[in-house]
Amino acid sequence: MDLNADSGESFGSWTMGNDASMFRIVSSANVACGFHAGDPVTMLDSCRAAFELDVRVGAHVGYRDLHGFGRRSMDMSFDELFGDVLYQLGALDGMAHAVGASVDYVKPHGALYNRIVNDVEQAEAVMAAIHAYDPGLPVLGLPGSALLRLAEESGHPVFREAFVDRGYMPDGTLVPRSQEGAVVHDAGAVVERAVRFAVRGEVLAVDGTVVRVQPDSLCIHGDTLDAVELAAAVRAGLEEAGVEIESFA
């Protein structure tokens, strides 16, 4: 099972997360590409650290929304979104190659991630940009999303993820962050959910419904105060349950 976490989200003198510690726990890092977060130095440092610790680098492409941290949905034309995603892929790939690493997959961020679960037009723009950049680049996303369907149709390797610290709706989508139950804060519950995802391929939705999910990767958010401790507990719980941690990329 792969463990992924968002990273490279600091900007200038403003720091987000503890990437140095998180990279020692996860097997894949979703590195911000400068639009929702991150700057050139942060991107370069993230790619270098990931390479040195044998962590796979993923392009965490998002809306051009630094003020909103990429969590505000945006109406964009096909060409605008196509260009923005292509720009981000090229930027991060350049940084990665400069330190001997490579961009091994793509995972959209925040509001863009959620929107292209159902918004086919935006999903087509994102997928067209990925395909134009590299027709063999793997795509990581939510099971049943429009993005993953289009990725499969385009011949890209597709990997499905689950969120150990996010609430689920009965239809398998994530509880919006504006609603109660969007984030699971109890460490014991998070570890239990991670093991259940990996071993049984399921999760309990906010209404108690059992939702079937068979993920290739488990996401741990790195922007909470206790993110590193939680990630370490999740990894330990998975390994104790006999789950081997290895990147899908």
Number of helices: 8
The helix content is: 25-40%
Q: Which stretches of 5+ consecutive residues score pLDDT under 50? A: none
Provide the structure class: alpha/beta
What is the N-to-C order of secondary-structure elements (H for helix, E for strand)?
EHEHEHEHHEHEHEEEH
Task: Considering the chains and any ligands shown, give keywords for the structure.
249 residues, alpha/beta, seven-stranded parallel β-sheet, two-stranded antiparallel ribbon, 8 helices, 38% helix, globular, LamB/YcsF/PxpA-like
What does this 3D model show about the protein?
With 249 residues, this protein is an alpha/beta fold. The protein is built from eight helices and nine strands. The strands form two sheets. The protein has a seven-stranded parallel β-sheet. The protein has a two-stranded antiparallel ribbon with strand order 7-8. Helix 2 links the parallel strand 2 and strand 3. Helix 2 packs across helix 3, helix 3 packs parallel to helix 5 and helix 7 packs across helix 8. The radius of gyration is 17 Å and the shape is globular. The mean pLDDT is 95.
